[in-house]
Amino acid sequence: MFATNRQKMIGLIGLLIVLLAAMWMSIVCGYTDTSWRQAVAALIDNNGSNAHLVVATVRLPRALIAAAVGASLAMAGALMQALTRNPLASPGIFGINAGAGFFIVVMVTFFSISSLQMLSWIAFIGAAAAAAIVFVISAAGKDGLTPLKMTLAGTAVAALFASLTQGMLAMNEKALEEVLFWLAGSVAGRKLELLAAVFPYLAAAWLGAMLLARHVNILMMGDDVAKGLGQRTNVIKAAAALLVVLLAGGSVAVAGPIGFVGIMVPHMARALAGVDHRWLLPYCALLGGILLLAADIGARYVLMPREVPVGIVTALIGVPFFVYIARRGITAK
After folding, report:
1. Distances 208 to 37, 134, 201, 239 between C-alpha atoms, Å
2. How much is the pLDDT for 333?
3. DSSP designation for 94
4. Are 188 and 108 in contact (CB under 8 A)?
């Protein structure tokens, strides 16, 4: 673990360099052979050739989307684990993935919507609706928002939406074919316009998370201590929940429900930066982008020339990690 702020800053700079290198590898690597020189030429002076078009219209957007989505999911996971005080918490615990998937399936089934851009906005709305339901249920009662109530409400809402989605897909094979790739989570084939549409929300959430970091540190001491220090805990929890919706909802809207990034990365970041969220959140952003870029590059080579959705690759990495964290938590008790 980095002991001083100077060492943490050096670590951030190092991770930023690794992130930029991963983005460059994402632009160069793939089924179509692209040299480093061709990639630079495509970005600086595109001549319209096939190699240049692949770089400019496919791989560059893909790299930018993977970096933004990975960073957002990781920061959302860190905030969720702080809110619920649960080391296994992730954006999915708010029912965000399940809500987005349900809304997508409803629109495809009943309204035959196939536009990827339209489906992205529908996913955003579904994610926000699911999180709002969880928030309302959790806030009910005299105790207000508590970690246990948020966890239970999120699990129940996620299970409800997931069951409804599976039932609708079982009755409509056409809808299953149209949304299956999206439900698996992927950054392939996404245009830069999709990221541009939600980027203001993601950027605002990144900034908001950094501004809230000090308050989250206090909240982690416990509600009684936080209230004793004058913190309005329900306001901080509501603000953090809103940031999770913006971060995870925007990510799901662009790339579909990509799992395990929000679980794994915060633990990696804590091992490097400690528990201070003023450092933890930027570390999560960089590590999340690196992880998703690496997973996406790997997804291109698993079954080449076909590609595996990146959500499957993150699941293959994340399941053993999840089991390890769960076992370590049980052993600690």
Report:
1. 39, 21, 10, 9
2. 40
3. G
4. no
Domains and CATH numbers, the chain: 5-332 (1.10.3470.10)
Burial of 47 (0-12, 13-18, 19+ CB in 10 A): exposed
Give the burial class of 15: count Cβ atoms within 10 A of its Cβ; 0-12 exposed, 13-18 middle, 19 or more buried. Answer: buried
Cα–Cα distance, 280 to 122 (Å, whole number): 31
Concatenating the DSSP letter of every residue in 294-327 gives HHHHHHTTSBTTB---HHHHHHHHHHHHHHHHHH
What are the beta bridge partners of residue 303? 306
Provide the token pair at 141.
């009662």
Residues 6+ apart with CB under 8 A from 169: 105, 175, 176, 179
Give φ, ψ of 88 to 5 degrees.
-105, 5
Q: What tokens appear for 15 in the block?
A: 């991770």
| Residue 69 Cα distances to 65, 137, 190, 213, 311, angstroms | 6, 28, 12, 20, 12
Counting Cα atoms < 13 Å in the Cβ hemisphere of 93 gives: 28
Helix orientation angle between 60-84 and 261-273, rounded to the nearest 10 degrees:
80
Low-confidence residues of the chain, pLDDT below 70?
1-3, 33, 47-48, 51, 114, 116, 144-145, 173-178, 181, 326, 328-333
d(CA 141, CA 85): 20
Helices then strands, counting H and E runs in the chain, come out as 14, 0
Sign of the dihedral through C-alpha 297, 256, 241, 144: negative
> What local confidence, expressed as pLDDT, does residue 232 receive?
84
Q: Cis omega before residue 266 (within 30°)? A: no
- What is the spatial distance between Cα 7 and Cα 221, in angstroms, rounded to a whole number? 25
Q: Do 19 and 286 contact (CB within 8 A), yes or no? A: yes
